[in-house]
Amino acid sequence: IASWKFETAKYYVTIIDAPGHRDFIKNMITGTSQADCAVLIVAAGTGEFEAGISKNGQTREHALLAFTLGVKQLIVGVNKMDSTEPPYSEPRFEEIKKEVSSYIKKIGYNPAAVAFVPISGWHGDNMLEPSTKMPWFKGWQVERKEGKAEGKCLIEALDAILPPARPTDKPLRLPLQDVYKIGGIGTVPVGRVETGILKPGTIVVFAPANITTEVKSVEMHHEALQEAVPGDNVGFNVKNVS
């Protein structure tokens, strides 16, 4: 699982990218279950979308997996708009939007709450700023009980994600994503705090090995933290655990 971090106007975003290949389905599940929102990337090229939405296609599989694992917010990026016939085709975008909407509705998502954004990752269209190549696209709108949101590009759709309630009052629970061994520092487990608070000096128990140890330091985005709360993807250093 690869994770990248970047900042938007509102949030620190951690992208968890899990390979879609069948051999790595375990990684996909680990990664997906830790996300607050899924960004489903659908290829708009001729034949590509059809393959993804076919009976055993990845588009179907990934959307179903995300919903089943409890990721209730979704953004759909209709990618490779530069390779439609003709390029940047509005009818093609509308066709894909209609078909994906009907499929995700069957799974359990409400299409009215899902932003559909026509993009080209390669050319950067509608990623960070509105593209001049799709004048027909007036923007995405979403409606949910917490209110409406709208925008033109993908980064604005990320800013419209609703942050989930963070249960800081519950006992600490932090599913591990990885464990690094760093020379001179020691063992550094990495994962996302689900409930409770993690801070230096906390005594933690690792399951299923049932090892108890003290947390020496906590880091996020390469900065030391005084405390990590639910939603934070952190690395922490532990004493005498190999």
TrEMBL record:
InterPro entries: EFTu-like_2, P-loop_NTPase, T_Tr_GTP-bd_dom, TRAFAC_GTPase_members, Transl_B-barrel_sf. The keyword Protein biosynthesis applies. One of its GO terms (cellular component) is cytoplasm. Residues 1-168 form the Tr-type G domain. Keywords: Cytoplasm, Elongation factor, GTP-binding, Nucleotide-binding, Phosphoprotein, Protein biosynthesis. The keyword Cytoplasm applies. GO terms for molecular function: GTP binding; GTPase activity; translation elongation factor activity. It holds the Pfam family GTP_EFTU_D2. It is found in: Cytoplasm. Its main location: cytoplasm. CDD domains: EF1_alpha_II. This is Elongation factor 1 alpha. It comes from Hyposmocoma saccophora. The lineage of its organism: Eukaryota, Metazoa, Ecdysozoa, Arthropoda, Hexapoda.
